Task: structure prediction
Amino acid sequence: MKLENEALAEVQSSGALSWSACIPTLNRFDVLQVNLRCLLAQSRLPKQVIIVDASQDAEQHRAALQPLFSGTGVEFILEPASARSSAVQRNQALSHVTADIVLLLDDDSLLFPDCAEKFLATFEADHEQRVAGLALQNVSELPPIAAALLGGSDQDASAIEQKKGGSTANKSRLAFLEKYRLWRFFRKEVLMQAMDRMFVPYDSRRPRPSLQPSDNLIKVRHLPGYGMAVRTHIAQREQFNPFLLAYCPCEDLDASYRYGRHGICAFSPDARLMHYEVEGSRITRMQATSLGVSNVALFIHTNSDSPTKHRAAFAVFALRRLVGETLKDFLSKRFDFPQAKGVMAAIPRSYGIFRRPLPDAQRWYQEQQLELLQKKKAA
Result:
């Protein structure tokens, strides 16, 4: 432990950046423990690990997890959520951050041991602080500690493969199709499987930083909520929309789009994690699709600098989502069409948002979300 403390002091004296991890969670304690063990195996330990727990067992979880941090020098904070909303939980966690960089994670995001070292190196090399945030690289294999904790049998590997997108044969077919431009166009523009197609940009006149020829970076418009590292002062200024409830589709796209007002958002290919994608405590397919459309309407109404233009863009977006989700339901043999129904339910709700002054729209939309979320889940 003495050697670890000496190494930490050496890093701090070198002017290196500190980092904190923020994790919203709900009823996924088993995988959360694996997440924390991966965090504590980092080659550069965090300053803080902050968890906001929306479960009824938050106090018991804190007591069970506290011993993991004993003697590490890492500050551990776990507190009950003020609301069952991943966006609100993230904001609650951000209020405690005192490090230079904040890593926003899902509770089922499992970091490789050098992940923090890699993303910190990019921020530390950015002396002009032009980089606002970094998207981490999601890979299909487990980090070593997670593999040891979750097991490494063929059955486990098969289960992980299913979580990450189907069988090897299916992946091979998709890889074959990716060679064809027509398929890539269909997947991106019709099925709308690209992240950027799930969001309507609402900055038309606001200046946004751009890459310079000297930048050795891959610029992205959005950062994924399962793993994004952001300069703390930017994340605390551009918080997640607090009027979203439950699991909040597109919350990360909205927040990271606003991070892009303050600097470049880029991809960090060497900072690896595995998004394990545990399904517990998620909302239904229909609910997620529906909120994924109407949330975008709220983002536009809240932030747009050209409302008429962006509402017209939203109308096109909603129509394309309806076509794309109908096709995805059909191709997946979901003949009750839950995703298409989700879009259909979202369209009148979205225009209800636009018709109201913003404070009224925010209150009204929370009531609408509650009504949708209280509907009985599909069997």
Observations:
- Strands lie at 19-25, 48-53, 75-80, 101-105, 109-111, 131-138, 218-219, 227-231, 264-275.
- The chain has two domains: 2-144+196-275, 285-373.
